[in-house]
Amino acid sequence: MNDCTVLVVGGAGYIGTHMVNELLKAKINVISLDNLSTGHRDLLPGGLFIEGRLGDATLLDKIFSTHHIDAVMHFAAYSLVGESVAKPLKYYRNNLAETTELLDAMRRHNVKRFIFSSTAAVYGEPAEVPISEDHPCAPTNPYGATKLAVERMLADCDTAHNFKFIALRYFNAAGADESGKLGERHEPETHLIPCILKAAAGELENVQIFGTRYPTPDGTCLRDYVHVSDLAQAHLLALEALLSGKDSRIYNLGNSNGHSVRQVIEVARKVTGHQILAVESAPRPGDPAVLVADSAKIRKELGWQPKFEDLDRMIQSAWDWHRFDKKEEL
C-alpha cells in the first residue's frame, strides 16, 4: 500500500486526524479535505491539507485531476443525533447531498474505492443484541437515516459503475491516541466521555445523564465503546481489502460489550481520581436504549483485532489527551 494516495474527507476531525496519523505511519500518501466547520487544522499530523467542502464539484475536479487518488475515506458527516432531529435539512444537505457530489466526482475521474464512516444509528431500536450486520435497519433519527441512505447509494453505484466500497458501522468511538497528543476536541462538546472528563477537570459543573428509565439494568442507555485507534486500524484493513480487489462489504465496529452511562461515569471517577457530579435529565429524542455490536464478521473476514478494548484504558487515553490539550491552550 506504500505507493497509494488516499483522500481523507473530514481529515481534520476527531476520527479523521487519527486516521491520517495511522495512514502516515503506514507510509501512505494522504490528502485531507476539510471545511474546518468542526475540524481543527492544528491537529492534523501531516500530509497535504486542502480547505473546502466535500460537495464542491469544482474543487473536487481539481483535486482528482491534480492527484492520482487510489481511494477515498469519508469522515465528513454531521453526527449529533439530537441536532439531526431539530435540524434535519442540515443533515440531509451535508451528509447526503454533499456526499452525492463527492461520489459523482469520483465517477467522473474513475476513482472506484470508497471507505465510508457509517454508524450503528442505521439500526434504530434493535430487536436483538448484539446487533449483526443483517439486522433490519430502521433508524430513529435523521442522522442514522442519512447514513443509511448513503450506504444504499453506494450499493447502487456498485451495481451501476463497479464502484467498490466498505461501509464501517461504528458503535461509540472513544479514547485518544496513546501518545496523548491527539484526541477529541469539539465545541460545543456533546459526547459522553469528553463531557465527563470536562466535569472531572472542573470545566463543567456536572455531567448530565439523559434518561434513567430505559429498559436496561440501571435505567441508563447502554453503549458499545470502541477505541478510535482501533477504528483507524479497521480502516487500514478495509483499504488493503479494496486495493487487493475484494468486493464491497458492510461491517460493524464495536467491542461487543455494553457499558451504561452510570458505569462509564464510575470508571471515569476511578481513572481521574475526581468526584464527578452527575445530574439526571430528560432523555434525548432519537436515542435507542441499547446499542451493542456483533463485530464477528470483520474479525473473521479482515482479521480485525482491537487492541484497546478495556474501558479504563479508553478513558485513561482520553484523560491524558484532555490534560495535554488544556496545557497547549495556556
What is the topological layout?
Layout: E1 5-9, H1 14-25, E2 29-34, E3 48-51, H2 57-66, E4 71-74, H3 81-86, H4 88-108, E5 113-119, H5 142-161, E6 164-170, E7 172-174, H6 192-200, E8 207-210, E9 222-227, H7 228-243, E10 249-253, E11 258-260, H8 261-272, E12 278-281, E13 290-291, H9 296-301, H10 311-329
Parallel strand pairs: 1-2, 1-4, 2-3, 4-5, 5-6, 6-10, 7-9, 8-12, 9-13
Antiparallel strand pairs: 9-11
Give an overview in words:
The protein has helices at residues 14-25, 57-66, 81-86, 88-108, 142-161, 192-200, 228-243, 261-272, 296-301, 311-329; strands spanning 5-9, 29-34, 48-51, 71-74, 113-119, 164-170, 172-174, 207-210, 222-227, 249-253, 258-260, 278-281, 290-291. With 330 residues, it is of the alpha/beta class. The chain folds into 2 domains: 5-174 and 225-253, NAD(P)-binding Rossmann-like Domain (Rossmann fold); 192-223 and 256-329, UDP-galactose 4-epimerase, domain 1. The strands form 3 sheets. It has a 7-stranded parallel sheet with strand order 3-2-1-4-5-6-10, with helices on both faces. Strands 7, 9, 11 and 13 form a 4-stranded mixed sheet that branches. The longest helix is centred in the N-terminal third of the chain and has 21 residues, at 88-108. The relative contact order is 0.15. The model has no long low-confidence stretch (mean pLDDT 95).
Short description:
With 330 residues, the chain is an alpha/beta fold. It has ten helices and 13 strands. Helix 4 runs parallel beside helix 5 and helix 6 packs parallel to helix 8.
